[in-house]
Amino acid sequence: MSSAQDKALQYMVLVPAFNEESTIKILIDTILKQKPDQLLIINDASTDQTAKILDELTHQQPIQVLHNEQNLGKAGSLWRGFEQAIEQNMDVVITMDGDGQHRAEDIPALLQSHQTKPEHLVIGARERNLKTQPLGRFLANRFANFWISWAAGYGISDSQSGFRLYPAALLKKIDNLKNSEGFVFESEVIIEAAWQGHYTSVITIPTIYHKNRRPSHFQPWQDIKKITKMVARRLVITHFSLKDLFAALTNKPPAK
User: Is 254 a member of any domain?
Assistant: First the structure.
């Protein structure tokens, strides 16, 4: 990627934060080293010291902090950030979780992938094995990947990763997902994007679980149940396409 392209591309890093007092400051420091045009942190009505920590950083450029008056959940916080990015004419939005499981050093790889296929949603796919991931999360993610791949019509390697690059062109097409709740949104957007002609590109990232991390907000079996219901509704629309099922089972890439 040339320096001219780097300067032309305007990108925001968006971090939804709920009770991230142990990791948010370090994460912000590492993101700033990547020199984003905008770093937007959405404090989702945290009950710990997250808000205080963020308010102490607002004097730094290019940091912007928004505080939700009430907890909107991850999807609600993401949408608030997406709307801000569109208003600011950003070309892409990179989302990262606030618990430190994503490395800012991998941001250039997402940007490079975007330069290759600008219309694609880019996902940072985590290395998957039982040595690096709790059993419940491992099984739940494998289960979700299968159903989402079937509904999307091609193989998805990590449907639950929150480390992503969203082209602004895609965000402007998916207003119908604003009511998609919680973690369901990040699954449904993959399907909706495919139906809109925006497939996914993947970069491989390490699986990181910090010792001092707060408990995951993702509840494997409860959230997977909600995701499965959403996928079922989508599969009814496609009449449970056997062609798409074959693509999911064979991890077949999209035609486009």
Answer: no
Q: Which residue has the tokens 């937007």?
A: 40
Beta strands in the chain (DSSP E): 11-17, 38-43, 63-67, 92-95, 121-126, 164-167, 200-205
**Domain assignment present for 116:** yes
Question: Cα–chain-centroid distance for residue 87?
Answer: 20
Q: Which domain holds residue 109?
A: 3-249
What is this structure's pTM?
Answer: 0.89
Longest C-alpha distance within the chain, in Å? Answer: 55
Q: Are 168 and 91 within 8 A, CB to CB?
A: yes
For residue 114, what is the domain's CATH number?
3.90.550.10
Q: In this structure, is residue 256 part of a structural domain?
A: no
Q: What does the alpha-carbon distance between residue 13 and residue 96 come to, in Å, rounded to a whole number? A: 7
The backbone region for 28, taken as left when phi is positive above 0, alpha when psi lies in -120 to 50, beta otherwise, is: alpha
How many angstroms separate the CA atoms of 27 and 178, rounded?
27
Q: What is the pLDDT of residue 1?
A: 45
Q: Is residue 14 part of a domain?
A: yes
- Say which amino acid occupies 140: A
pLDDT of residue 182: 75
Structure tokens at 140: 């739940």
pLDDT given for residue 126 in this prediction: 82
Half-sphere exposure of residue 221: CA atoms within 13 angstroms, side-chain side: 2
Spatial distance between the Cα atoms of 132 and 204, rounded to a whole number of angstroms:
14
User: How many domains would you assign to the chain?
Assistant: 1
**What is the C-alpha separation between 115 and 225, in angstroms, rounded?**
36
Question: Which residues touch 197 (CB under 8 Å, ≥6 apart)?
Answer: 119, 256
